[in-house]
Design a protein that fits this description.
The chain is mainly alpha-helical and about 170 residues long. The protein has helices at about 1-15, 20-35, 40-55, 60-75, 80-95, 100-115, 120-169. The chain has a single domain (about 1-169), classed as Tetratricopeptide repeat domain (Serine Threonine Protein Phosphatase 5, Tetratricopeptide repeat, Alpha Horseshoe).
């Protein structure tokens, strides 16, 4: 029961802004899971503990924890934390405008969502759609930034050429 209760308590604390307390509870879940060899629920707890770091824009910590959860879940052949942490990483990469990194894993995550739909398929499909939407937004934002830089560079080049022509005449 501890390995079900502790991660949910951590989520509740984080969702109400009690991040330090949430971190302590998630650390206790890790300790308990390791001590008693509850490996699948440990992977689940690790994946659940990553989320609030994303909410706090602590992208590096979130990425490290999500990757740890994915590695643990993959080694156990336990899809739920692998999928949840994978979707979290899609959101992380999209919010950091690292579209290519998100695109590297999106197909793997989407396939896992479809093959493991019996667990939380409905929720994963919604979250995957959100991840894909955020990737598209990041891609569009990146294109707008590139176009804006190109316009600025072009304008600067025209101004320089114009002032050079005036000074030569």
């Amino acid at each position: 029961m501890m390995m079900y209760g502790l991660p949910h308590l951590g989520l509740a604390l984080a969702s109400t802004g009690h991040y330090d307390e949430a971190a302590k509870v998630f650390e206790e879940a890790r300790r308990f899971g390791r001590e008693y060899g509850v490996d699948t629920l440990l992977a689940r707890a690790i994946a659940m503990s990553a989320g609030f770091h994303l909410d706090l824009f602590d992208f590096a910590a979130h990425e490290a924890i999500a990757e740890e959860a994915r590695g643990c879940a993959r080694s156990l052949g336990f899809p739920p934390p692998l999928i949840s942490a994978g979707i979290d990483l899609l959101l992380n990469f999209a919010r950091r405008h690292e579209v290519s990194r998100a695109e590297e894993i999106v197909d793997e995550v989407a396939e896992a969502v479809e093959t493991a739909a019996a667990w939380h398929g409905w929720l994963w499909r919604i979250r995957l759609a959100e991840g894909k939407a955020e990737i598209a937004l990041a891609r569009a934002t990146g294109k707008r930034r590139s176009a804006s830089r190109a316009r600025q560079s072009s304008r600067a080049g025209r101004r320089a050429a114009s002032s050079t022509r005036r000074s030569v005449s």
